[in-house]
Structures are given as C-alpha cells and as structure tokens.
C-alpha cells in the first residue's frame, strides 16, 4: 500500500474515485500501524528491560502512520477552503520521509520482539535444565513423580516456543538442525521417565545408572544445540565446520570446471587439482567400507583413476588456451570440459548406487527387528549369557547402520538431508548402547516390570529410527532423480505468464500457524498413507509396471501435500496446493485407465471387485478435480477448500492401499512366474527365528510430540493425586 502511494501518477485531472481510493489506502495504512503498535506496546509492558527502546520505536511508527493518513486526506480537495491543505500532491517528499520512518521503526519493533522471543526460549531452556538437575538427584518415587510433572509442563512450553521458532526459520539448514534437536528431546523425554524409574527401583544396578546418565547427557546436548541455532552462536566462538559430502564437492568442482568457458584465468590449476583430490579422498569412505560390494568398489576405483586422467588432459588444454586462444584449442577445451564433467557425474552416480543399494538391503534385512525381540525374551528369562550374545549382534547391526548413514550423507544431495543423515547416525550410535544397558538391567532383574518397560521404550526408539530411514532413503532418491529438492520444477506448478492466463487475478496465501495446527492430524494421516502405499509398491519386482509408475507419482504428490500442512516443501501457497491436487486427480484418472486394461487381461472371481474399486477411484478423482478448481474467496473459504482437497486426497490414497494388493494378487494368479512380487531377501538364514509375521512398525513423524508429552504429564499428575 505504501508503494502504491509513493508510485502514484501525478495526473492533472483527478477523479473523485481516485481521490477516495488514495484516502482509503492512507487510512488503511494508519489503522494497520495502529494495530501493530498496540501489540508492540503490550510486549513492551511485559518486558521492562526493553520497554524504553520498544516504546520509542512504537511512537515513531504511530507518528509516521498518522503523517501518511494526513497527507492522503485528499477527498475534500475540490473545496476552496482546503487549498492551503498540504497533501500527497503538494508534498510527495513528505510521504517518502514518513514511509522511510515507518519502515525503520517497524523494523526496530520486529527486531526487539525477536530478542524477546529468543530470551523466552533461553529462559524456558534454563527452567528445563534446573528441573533436570533435580530429577537426577531424587531418591524417592513420590518426589520423582512431583518433579517430573513439573518437568513435563516445562517441556511442553519449550516445545511450543521452539516449534514456532522452527517455523519462522528461513535457513533450511538451521530448520533441519532444529527439527533434529527437537526430535531428540521428544524421544528422550519418554526415555528419561522409564530410565529414571528403573534407577529408582534398582538403585544399586550399575547398568541402570549408565542407561539413565546417557539419556540426561543426550538431552543436555540437544538443548544446547537448540540455543546455538536460536542465538546463531557457537560455544567459545567456534565456527561450525560441516563435513563436505561427495555430492556437494562434485557440484562445486563442476561449477569451477564449467566456469572455464567464460574465464580462463579465474582460478589456478592447483585449486582445481586440490578440489578433485578432496572428492577422491571421500570416495575412500566407500572403497574402504566392508559393506561396499566388490563390483561397486571396482567401479569407484576405476572412475577415480579416470577422473585424474581427465583432469590432466583438461589442465593441459587449458594452459595452452591461456597462451594462445585459437579456435581449435577452444574446441579441444570444450571437449575436455565435457569429458571431465561426464566422468565426475558417473562417479556421483556410482557412489549413489553403492550407498542406496546398501541402505535398501540393510533396511530390508533388519525390518523384522529379530535381535530386539530376542533381547526382550532372553532378558525376561534372566539369561545373561544369551543377552550377551544378542548384544554383540546388536552392536554389529549398529556398526552397519552407522556406516550406512555415513555413506548416505555423501549422496544426500541437500544440506537438510545431510543433517538428517548425521542425526540418524548419532541416534544409532547412542541408542545401541542404551538398549544394551537396558537389556542387561532386565536380565539382572527379570521380574522387574519397570525394567521391561524401559527396554521396550529404547527398542521403540530404534525401530522408529529404522522406519524414518526408509523415508529418508526415498527422499535422497527423489533428490537424485530430480523429483524433489532445491532445483526441482515438478508437476507443472504455476509460473507467471506460462501456465495460467488468470494468474495475476489470484491471491496465493499460506496457511497461518493456527490453520496448520487444525489440519495437522489430516496431514499426518496422509503421510502415513503415503508410507503404506510406498511399502506396497516396493513389493513389486517390475518397477516399470504402468500401475506402479502412476501410483508412485501420486504418492510423491500426496507427500508434497503433507509437507504443505507443516509449512514445508515446495508447495508454498494454497494455489500451489490446489494445482497439485488437480494434477494428482489427473494422474489418478490415468491409473484408472491402466486398471481397466488390467481387468481386460484377467479372468478371475476378483475381477468384478477390481472394476468396482476402479469406478470408485474415477469418481473420487472427479470430485477432487471439481473441489480443486472451485473458486474460494476469503480466508475461511480458502481454508475449507484446503481441508477438502487434503481430505479427498487422503481418501484416494486409502483406496490405493486396497487396490495395490488386489492387482498384485490378480497378476500372480493369472500370470504365473511374471515376477510381480520380489523374492524373499537372501540373508534369511542368519535371522533369529523367535517369531513369524513380524510387522513393520508404523512410520513416525519427526516432530516434537507435544500431545504425547501433555498426555504423559496428565498421567503423572493423576498418579501423584492417587
């Protein structure tokens, strides 16, 4: 509105409509400033140490708003008595000065408010730390219950404050680090409860004490990291040194190489050689790993050798071109650049394949959690010898998963995913020994219900992290294949002047925090359904099958819509979401055509059911398209439309969960040996056979479980009252 006022055209003839419009804009600015300043003044009254600064900034903002309102009071200009009245037309510089003062003072208010928010988070953290110290020293269960109830309330407050801060962060790297720290705090809060109770029940047990100390130490580290992110500082003024991944190293190296086309002198050959050396040093993480296959190791070594040769050739031509810029030499340089880039691209593809294939195999192999089940059984039996045997197996599993995380970090493709890999590695490193100490405690006290519950909690954390790794692997593959990531242009999102003739008429908006909270449950259901659908598609050996291709595309779109409900991902506005919903519905219609084609090929009692479900799919997709295309005016109507789109998308995903097993069954019956389903994993011989039909645990969302914390606090308060 201020920009509109300053940029208005000085026309000699001014209609009443123009004058009224200018006056309305001026009044609107003044009213908005008034509302803003009222909030600022309320904040000042609650925070005495910043009251003076905040009050001055608020007074300046209010004065600037009133000045703009006076200068735009132009509706009465046609009356003779108003000739001497100073307005925007007679003193445009006055509006510019007032606008500058307004922007300056508003910025001051925002900065001061931000300092207050940071102070609130630090104060909340200090409360949590103080209560943690009390929890560490308690000696009776009754005292523990009282203090833990207080601790739970403080953690809920900290969760709300840091959650709001995470949503406000613009730096994706910081946002990922904050999410990782908050995930640790969520899981550790539950662990702290059972670990402390176990220690109180068995005060002389060394393994119980080690288990509890590990939880407290990890929580303190996570709290410290949150404060580092919020205050943008490091202890002792250290600068953060993030490890360089192969993916980012190759990206930077290619940029430098391709820059030679524009400028032959902007870097030295030594710099380029050093960059390649660093990349090749990192490939040793793969070639030295005991878990890299012989084939991948040989290919990586071969490509590393080829990269050195290509660089020698590039440097040779480059040096010649610096001395003599002939046409032939410049053509040779172009060929050398292309060969160099092609070689490092192949190297990137090879390390990606090595890391992701290892991860897929390990996650499939450990999906039954047989070692954890065996630890629980042998612990309850009090069989110390068997527990020792299975703790060795868990340690081996931990080493495998830690190595997998390190290799995945090299090929993750984006900084947030790199941070997620580092967080996963830390989680496996810490949780493994904690499970072992919890299992040892149970084996020493096999009749202890609390020791058994404690082991369950740590095992659940391990299973949850394994489940999260499957999602992480999918995201890494999506980035590599261009389906998701920093430069992804996917699903024809509307861009000015290209896809939508009426784009200027649209007013795209984002969901505010309150709306995100309302729609969070629906988004979570959608997230879980995408995981279920992905699990079903992974069972198909023929990944090129048309049905699988359509379903995978729909699952990826549904996942983007889930991220939108959290204020994350590439769908930034409600208009992006509606466009995504339209494309999702179109893809569903294409899937229905593929299902009709399948029904024509099969002759089975289940064929009518397939046709019935396909007709349901067509109907649902039509309804979703109608909803997505319907106009919505106003905030309330837009939110209702968002809710309806996500609800209808969830219904389609629920139907896909039923359709996929049915299709696979029909194909298997009617085409024996067609390879619809993947064969069983080859590592089964080594598995512990203590149970059958082990279920994969539900995938959990990596957010701070405020509701679960509140439930814990309620339960503890009830226990205290009893």
TrEMBL record:
Subcellular location: Cytoplasm
Keywords attached to this entry: Cytoplasm
SUPFAM superfamilies the record matches: alpha-catenin/vinculin-like
InterPro entries from the UniProt entry: Alpha-catenin/vinculin-like_sf, CTNNAL1, Vinculin/catenin
Keyword Transmembrane attributed: no
GO annotation (BP), single: cell adhesion
GO cellular component terms, semicolon-separated: cytoplasm
Pfam families linked: Vinculin
Superkingdom of origin organism: Eukaryota
MF terms in GO: actin filament binding
Family classification: Belongs to the vinculin/alpha-catenin family.
Name the record gives this protein: Alpha-catulin
Species name: Platysteira castanea
Gene name of this polypeptide: Ctnnal1
């Amino acid at each position: 509105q201020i920009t509109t006022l300053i940029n208005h055209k000085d026309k000699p003839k001014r209609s009443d409509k123009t004058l009224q419009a200018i006056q309305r804009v001026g009044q609107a600015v003044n009213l908005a400033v008034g509302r803003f300043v009222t909030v600022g003044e309320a904040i000042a009254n609650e925070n005495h140490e910043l009251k003076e600064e905040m009050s001055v900034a608020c007074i300046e903002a209010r004065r600037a708003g009133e000045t703009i309102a006076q200068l735009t009071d132009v509706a009465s200009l046609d009356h003779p008595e108003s000739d001497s009245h100073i307005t925007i037309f007679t003193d445009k510089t006055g509006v510019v000065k007032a606008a500058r003062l307004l922007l300056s003072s508003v910025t001051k208010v925002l900065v001061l408010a931000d300092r207050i928010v940071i102070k609130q988070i630090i104060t909340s953290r200090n409360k949590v730390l103080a209560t943690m110290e009390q929890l560490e020293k308690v000696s009776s269960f009754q005292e523990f219950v009282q203090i833990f109830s207080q601790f739970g309330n403080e953690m809920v407050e900290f969760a709300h404050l840091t959650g709001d801060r995470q949503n406000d962060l613009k730096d994706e790297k910081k946002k990922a680090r904050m999410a990782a720290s908050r995930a640790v705090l969520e899981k550790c809060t539950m662990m702290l409860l059972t670990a402390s109770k176990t220690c109180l029940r068995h005060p002389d047990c060394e393994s119980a004490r080690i288990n509890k100390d590990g939880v407290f130490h990890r929580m303190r580290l996570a709290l410290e990291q949150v404060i580092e992110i919020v205050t943008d500082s490091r202890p002792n003024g250290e600068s953060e040194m993030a490890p360089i991944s192969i993916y980012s190293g190759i990206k930077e190296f290619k940029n430098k190489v391709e820059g030679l086309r524009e400028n032959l002198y902007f870097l030295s050959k030594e710099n380029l050689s050093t960059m390649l050396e660093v990349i090749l040093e990192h490939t040793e993480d793969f070639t030295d790993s005991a878990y890299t296959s012989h084939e991948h190791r040989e290919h990586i070594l071969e490509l590393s050798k080829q990269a050195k040769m290509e660089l020698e050739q590039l440097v040779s031509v480059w040096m010649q071109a610096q001395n003599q810029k002939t046409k032939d030499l410049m053509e040779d340089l172009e060929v050398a650049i292309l060969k160099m880039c092609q070689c490092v691209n192949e190297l990137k593809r090879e390390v990606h394949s090595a890391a992701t294939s290892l991860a897929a195999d390990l996650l499939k192999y450990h999906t039954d959690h047989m070692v954890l089940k065996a630890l629980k059984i042998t612990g309850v039996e009090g069989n110390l010898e068997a527990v020792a045997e299975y703790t060795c197996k868990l340690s081996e599993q931990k080493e495998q998963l830690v190595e997998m995380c390190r290799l995945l970090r090299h090929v993750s493709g984006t900084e947030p995913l790199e941070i997620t890999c580092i967080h996963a590695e830390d989680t496996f490193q810490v949780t493994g020994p904690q499970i072992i100490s919890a299992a040892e405690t149970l084996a020493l006290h096999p009749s202890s219900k609390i020791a058994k519950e404690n082991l369950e909690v740590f095992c659940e954390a391990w299973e949850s992290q394994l489940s999260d790794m499957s999602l992480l692997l999918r995201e890494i593959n999506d980035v590599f294949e261009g389906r998701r990531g920093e430069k992804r242009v996917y699903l024809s999102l509307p861009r000015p002047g290209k896809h939508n003739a009426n784009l200027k008429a649209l007013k795209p908006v984002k969901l505010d925090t309150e709306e995100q909270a309302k729609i969070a449950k629906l988004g979570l259901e959608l997230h879980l359904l995408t995981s279920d659908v992905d699990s079903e598609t992974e069972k198909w050996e023929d990944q090129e099958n048309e049905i699988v291709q359509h379903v995978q595309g729909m699952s990826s779109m549904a996942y983007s819509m889930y991220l939108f409900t959290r204020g994350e991902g590439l769908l930034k506005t409600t208009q992006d979401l509606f466009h995504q919903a339209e494309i999702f519905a179109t893809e569903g219609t294409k899937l229905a055509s593929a299902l009709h084609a399948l029904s024509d090929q099969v002759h089975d009692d289940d064929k009518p059911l397939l046709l019935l479900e396909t007709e349901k799919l067509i109907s649902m997709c039509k309804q979703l398209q109608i909803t997505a295309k319907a106009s919505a005016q106003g905030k309330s109507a837009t939110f209702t439309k968002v809710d309806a789109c996500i609800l209808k998308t969830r219904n389609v995903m629920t139907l896909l969960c039923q359709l996929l097993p049915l299709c696979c069954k029909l194909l298997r019956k009617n085409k024996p040996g067609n390879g619809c389903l993947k064969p069983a994993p080859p590592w089964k011989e080594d598995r512990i056979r203590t149970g059958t039909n082990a279920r994969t645990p539900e995938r959990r969302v990596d957010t701070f479980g405020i509701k679960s914390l509140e439930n814990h606090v309620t339960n503890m308060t009830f226990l205290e009252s009893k």
